[in-house]
Amino acid sequence: xxxxxVVGARPNFMKIAPFIAAIEATDGLEHILVHTGQHYDDKMxxxxxxxxxxxxxxxxxxxxxxxxxxQVGRTMxxxxxxxxxxxPDWVVVVGDVNATLACSVTAKKLHIKVCHIEAGLRSGxxxxxxxxxxxxxxxxxxxxxxxxxxxxxxxxxxxxxSNTIKFVGNIMIDTLEKxxxxxxxxxxxxxxxxxxxxxxxxAERKIYGNDFALITLHRPSNVDQxxxxxxxxxxxxxxxxxxxxxxxxxxxxxxxxxxxFGLKDDxxxxxxxxxxxxxxxxxxxxxxxxxxxxxxDSGGLQEECTILGTPCLTLRxxxxxPITLRDNGGASVLVGNNIDRIREEYQNxxxxxxxxKRPKLWDGNAxxxxxxxxxxxxxxx
Length: 381
Ligand code: UD1
Fold this sequence. Notes:
- The chain is an alpha/beta fold and 381 residues long.
- Helix content is 46%, strand content 14%.
């Protein structure tokens, strides 16, 4: 049986790595890896392939940046040619990026079966590009592998036949557990000094104890408007730096906006703000393990905090991952981008002591269950 799996953007790599390893450990499966090339900088792509031991993609579509329509359209055109040439039995897509949507639509139109790993997540916010990608992909998929039972329930409520839904657990946690020791062995100060953003090169930075805040931002809703981004920056500069240094690996989109809005100089010149280049997987995990708290708009980091136990302020008004919320036993609390709300929860979080609960089947063994589910759906077991 021939399985073609697809990656496109940074959050896909940690989901596909264990899946490929599980396929390779199973007899009788041929695997083809396609990279759409949505993320193309070495630091957003190649360093993850290398550090997670992902084999070089068999095919790279070279799509690159562009508007959503441009990215999805170009991916569909190029992926269709690959499908016609290689004719896989299954296309496996992960997550909710533009590659996920484009490749599932293209495969389905050629009557090739689609399996979606991380199916059933719903934020309820149709203005998020990822929510559109999730809805369309799940509607078309023949096999929907969910990370938690809330996601399975979402699919049942939408009328997805129950025999196509399988609760397998969170595949990203397979990668976290496999790489945890390697991450733990890294030194915080080394990570910070070896990955300084070019504007801060030369200045030696140091972390004392575990006393730092880690921040990542990349969602258009937080970084694309000057009014919003400047308030967040001012909260960091005027409030958080009074308590502890801030470590901030910059996503390329965020870096461009900080420069465009004239906000970057104040950050560059502040002795308690450590701006970094986009980090590798192990480096990011080590910072997450060490941080006193994390401020983020990333879905994956909310999940990792739930396992690592780092308190997380999620700068969003909703989440497709409610299982990561404190109210459901997780590590995260939604604070949107209202500074009063962020400030209040920031103070609460510094005083709080609690250990999040590990969600069911976030046990490091989800990839094997994904492969078994595909074989079962193909009548092979
Ligand atoms: C994409 C995903 C998002 C995911 C995020 C992780 C979609 C709709 N969004 O958003 O779900 O959380 O990846 O990063 O698929 N850029 C570079 N180099 C790169 C990649 C991007 O410089 O290698 C810059 C470009 O200016 C580009 C911008 O970043 O226009 C945004 O990249 P894009 O792939 O469009 O979306 P992300 O914001 O990264």
